[in-house]
TrEMBL record:
Residues 2-97 form the Stress-response A/B barrel domain. This is Dabb family protein. Pfam families: Dabb (PF07876). Gene3D superfamilies: 3.30.70.100. SUPFAM superfamilies: Dimeric alpha+beta barrel. InterPro entries: Dabb, Dimeric_a/b-barrel, HS1/DABB1-like. SMART domains: Dabb. It comes from Paenibacillus ginsengarvi. Homodimer.
Length: 99
């Protein structure tokens, strides 16, 4: 299996009211994208503000294998989410590793 971690840092064009919509789209990945074993997503509530660095939304997806992880990127459901973020991101951090 493979773990896929993503942290999102939004720019000043981002309306925090969009967080719920983005989370709903992310949570729907599990039923629509093959190979997802487990998925969690949420708003960053860390009390370690000095370590937050402006990253306010997180995603963790467990994939059944490396092929599922590779197929995820171009999948139309994922690409729809990417389009929702257009012009709203300051930065994204992605970490993938086998488990």
């Amino acid at each position: 299996m493979y773990e896929h971690l993503v942290s999102f840092k939004f720019n000043d064009k981002f309306d925090p009211a969009m967080e719920r919509e983005l989370l709903d789209v992310l949570h729907a990945f599990k039923g629509k994208i093959p190979g997802i074993v487990e998925l969690t997503a949420g708003v960053n509530v860390t009390e370690e503000l000095h370590n937050m660095h402006g990253y306010t939304l997180g995603l963790r997806v467990t994939f059944q294998d490396r092929e599922a992880l590779r197929d995820y990127g171009p999948h139309p459901v994922h690409q729809h989410f990417v389009k929702l973020l257009d012009g709203l991101l300051d930065n994204v951090v992605v970490v993938d590793y086998p488990i």
